[in-house]
């Protein structure tokens, strides 16, 4: 960890990745990493990914441009690819909804996360819908009803979509809050709590 300038707190923390080859990912994910051209994991990726692969809660702190998005995406996508595809046209729509929500403080960041997610999600058949202000709520609602495994959203617009019943979070048990400190500073704490209250207790 000293070699990579990694500081940790907590118990039973797995050793950091030394290389992508050392990681125990599904071949499809390893192939995408190679195709995109990611050579070596960054420090946040080296430590956060092994923890995330154990489905443990984690708070990661790293500078902008340090690869945080991939650090939470790989464990998330590895888990989702083992789950059944979501079909929001099924008879029992009340049980449908995404498996995961990624929250971001701004539309721009949400769209950046969507772009990175789709690099992996599209080849893996994992569908993503971005739910942000400035885009048609009806169009977003239509895409949500078509079914998706991941929703990437700003807190205010996601609350709006939930209250208008375009979406339920009955099956959502995986939450990522990117730039959580900034979300709180921008006054989204109440919205975040309302979103979490809609999720099942695990």
From TrEMBL:
Record keyword Metal-binding present: no
Domain Helicase ATP-binding residues, every copy: 49-196
Record GO biological process: regulation of gene expression
Keyword terms, alphabetized: ATP-binding, Helicase, Hydrolase, Nucleotide-binding
Keyword Protein transport: no
InterPro entries from the UniProt entry: DEAD/DEAH_box_helicase_dom, Helicase_ATP-bd, P-loop_NTPase, RNA-helicase_DEAD-box_CS, RNA_helicase_DEAD_Q_motif
Domain of life: Eukaryota
Gene3D superfamilies: P-loop containing nucleotide triphosphate hydrolases (3.40.50.300)
Residue ranges of domain DEAD-box RNA helicase Q in the record: 18-46
PROSITE patterns hit by this protein: DEAD_ATP_HELICASE (PS00039), HELICASE_ATP_BIND_1 (PS51192), Q_MOTIF (PS51195)
EC number from the UniProt entry: 3.6.4.13
Motif segment (Q motif): 18-46
Molecular function in Gene Ontology: ATP binding; hydrolase activity; nucleic acid binding; RNA helicase activity
PANTHER family documented for this protein: ATP-DEPENDENT RNA HELICASE DBP3
Name assigned to this protein: RNA helicase
Native organism: Xenidae sp. PsAn16
